[in-house]
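Subject: for your reference before the review

Hello V.,

The reviewers asked for a structural picture of the protein, and I figured it would be easier to keep everything in one thread rather than splitting it across files. Below is the amino acid sequence we used in the manuscript, unchanged from the supplementary table.
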Amino acid sequence: MSEIPATAVITGTGLWTPEASVSNAELVASLTTAVEKWNAEHAEAIAAGELEARDLPNERFIVKASGIQRRYVIEKEGVLDPERLRPHLPLRGEDELGIQAEICVAAIDEALARAGRRRDEVDAILVACSNLQRAYPAVSIEVQSALGARGWAYDLNVACSSATFGVQAAVDAVRGGSARCAVVVSPEITSAHNNFELRDYHFIFGDACTAAVVEPVESAAPGRGFEVLGTRLRTLFSNNIRNDFGFMNRCEDGERHPHELVFRQRGRRVFREVCPLVAQHIVEHLKSLGLEVDDLTRMWLHQANLSMNQLIARTVLGRDPTPEEAPVILDEFANTSSAGSVIALHRHQADLAAGALGVLCSFGAGYSVGSVVLRRR
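And here is what came back from the structure prediction:
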């Protein structure tokens, strides 16, 4: 195994989880009511071939298609209301802390505690997530203000790969000297952009927020966290995962279907195209660092779909992974977009011995892939 010098360290991670959890059974009951009503209301158009009847959901399909058992949501009543199928989020005034900023602060505080750092030591904040609640001012600057942090902050969005892209940006800032204590935080309120009206999508997402503290190796407390041995990013344009909601919608001539303004995907194409792309990305990243696949102890993969994770890990390792080698958290959390791989890291790191190698890897719309090779301190 190559001795690779590290210049940056992830010294602490944090996780915020909503109190409310929704089971597959609850989701299925809600959507069944909604679908039966929709099909009845559109029976004539369906009979005439003008519309397709919507498929009824079932629990077996959900587990087989994804491996998901339940998910946390920021507000449960609205999600399960067949007449609404989206969370209730009370409007907050401009003088109140925003929802995303609020959950960012909670996750960051845990990450800072684990890192042994104070709020006022933070000098860079990157809010990296798949959807932001407004165009400006940046959520990250609101978080900076709430923390009483120094330095600078900005938002970035690379869909489900946002967290790993954010980690590379934080590592680059630390290496370049523009930050001494950077935080990457991913407030994923996915229930607000999920399509709860259709069987193929209603079960996919859950809400969570993760945070990671990145510091120069020379200032990090001894034995704390993970050394960053290398980061690697790749993007490749695809329309197979898409959400067209944006500030220009109100100016567009023509009428959009409402389902274009929430998450949608061509799942089979995504599976077929993304899995080999990610596996190759990980292998090539390790090779560029002088490492072999056999050097890996753990893969903290993006938690989108159990079959995808199993295939990617199997392709990388050349055999079936053990549960310890490729831990899964999506059964409890569902797909939390960019937060998923960091949740896996947060939950599955305590058993690793000093020197153990792992890779944090996310992938998603774009297409985008980001990997961070880590060594336990």
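For the response letter, the relevant points are probably these. The mean pLDDT is 96. The first strand starts at residue 8 and ends at 16.

Happy to draft the paragraph if you're swamped.

O.
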